[in-house]
């Protein structure tokens, strides 16, 4: 949680914005079709490693991007995709464990106060450093879910395409609306359908008996679409957040309850800022078409995604676009 200070999150958002622009230059120069989901994975891998202090050589970026993506993209699969995810977990943990050992040996210098430095030098209540394996897991618990925001960014692009009024309002610089828009993307679209836990002891809750040692699923998607909490829950409506009461138990795309005490993702604020940054980039800086493709959401996939994973035909990119965000020349030109 100490890594979630607003200034730290802003630094990550700024690094990610620079990465989007670097990629956009290449896309515009080549006038090529771009698979957004895959590109977002690389953008976020580069950004989070730079922010966290994890050294990343240019020639290893494809491999590390594949590994980190497999950790969430294949975890819920069955068969070879799942086994590749398990292998990627071992490889990613071994990679970061080596980084931790190099930091402790003094052969690798990383920024003091960076996430990787904080974990590598952390001492437990017994005064001992974490084992390299445990430290690696903790660092990857920051890096991996940040790359997983590529799923939400793909949903951001889908929502901008399907709901052009949202695109117009964000392009015009309505930041308050942008806040509501990314919340509605997280509420409306599926990511993982549930989170699991195992009961430590038997207890009763609201008339239900939970034995000790049983697996319990919290229905994320169902709760975010529960008509007892949401009016017309199957309608995409960012302005519902002006009208409807929300709390930590009905807006739960990344877990419920409080971050410090419950099973709610501590990186939630990172996800929100990276989604907003991507929405600004797609509406205010990048001009592109969405060629014919299958945009249906595949709910059988974990994580769920549009079947085409959003293919964009890039026309141009303008570094000056943020200063003229309302210009009709910026953003999607046709569908």
Short note summarizing the structure:
The protein has 335 residues and is an alpha+beta fold. It has eleven helices and ten strands.
Radius of gyration: 21 Å
How does the helix and strand content classify structurally? Answer: alpha+beta
- The count of DSSP E runs of length 2 or more, i.e. the number of strands, is 10
In the CATH scheme, what's the topology name? Cytochrome p450
Strand content: 5-15%
Percent of residues in helical segments?
40-55%
In sequence order, what are the helices and strands, one letter per element? HEHHHHHHHEEEEHHHEEEEE
Largest sheet: 4 strands, mixed
Query: What is the CATH architecture descriptor?
Result: Orthogonal Bundle
Name the CATH homologous superfamily. Cytochrome P450
- Which CATH first-tier class would you pick? Mainly Alpha
Report mean pLDDT, rounded to a whole number: 92
> What is the CA-CA span between the terminal residues?
41 Å
Q: Strand arrangement, largest sheet?
A: 1-9-6-10
Number of helices: 11
């Amino acid at each position: 949680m100490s890594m979630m200070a607003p200034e730290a999150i802003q630094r990550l958002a700024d690094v990610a914005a620079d990465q989007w622009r670097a990629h956009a230059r290449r896309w515009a120069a080549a006038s090529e079709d771009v698979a957004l989901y895959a590109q977002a994975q690389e953008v976020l891998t580069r950004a989070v490693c730079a922010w966290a202090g994890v050294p990343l050589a240019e020639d290893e970026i494809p491999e590390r991007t594949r590994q980190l993506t497999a950790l969430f993209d294949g975890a819920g699969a069955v068969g070879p995709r799942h086994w590749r995810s398990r292998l990627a977990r071992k490889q990613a943990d071994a990679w970061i464990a080596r980084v931790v050992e190099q930091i402790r040996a003094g052969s690798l210098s990383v920024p003091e106060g960076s996430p990787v430095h904080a974990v590598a030098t952390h001492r437990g209540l017994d005064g001992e450093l974490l084992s390299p394996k445990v430290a690696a897991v903790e660092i990857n618990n920051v890096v991996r879910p940040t790359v997983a925001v590529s799923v939400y960014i793909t949903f951001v692009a889908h929502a901008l395409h399907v709901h052009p009024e949202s695109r117009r309002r964000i392009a015009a610089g309505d930041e308050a609306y942008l806040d509501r828009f990314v919340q509605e993307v997280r509420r409306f679209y599926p990511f993982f359908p549930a989170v699991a836990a195992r009961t430590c002891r038997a207890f009763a809750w609201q008339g239900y008996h939970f034995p000790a040692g049983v697996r319990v699923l919290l229905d994320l998607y169902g709760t975010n679409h529960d008509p007892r909490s949401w009016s017309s829950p199957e309608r995409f409506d960012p302005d519902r957040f002006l009208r409807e009461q929300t709390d930590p138990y009905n807006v739960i795309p990344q877990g419920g309850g409080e971050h410090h005490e419950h099973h709610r993702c501590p990186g939630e604020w990172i996800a929100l800022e990276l989604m907003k940054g991507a929405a600004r980039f797609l509406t205010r800086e990048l001009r592109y078409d969405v060629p014919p493709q299958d945009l249906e959401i595949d709910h059988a996939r974990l994580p769920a995604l549009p079947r085409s994973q959003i293919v964009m035909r890039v026309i141009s990119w303008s570094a000056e676009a943020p200063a003229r965000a309302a210009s009709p020349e910026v953003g999607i030109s046709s569908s």
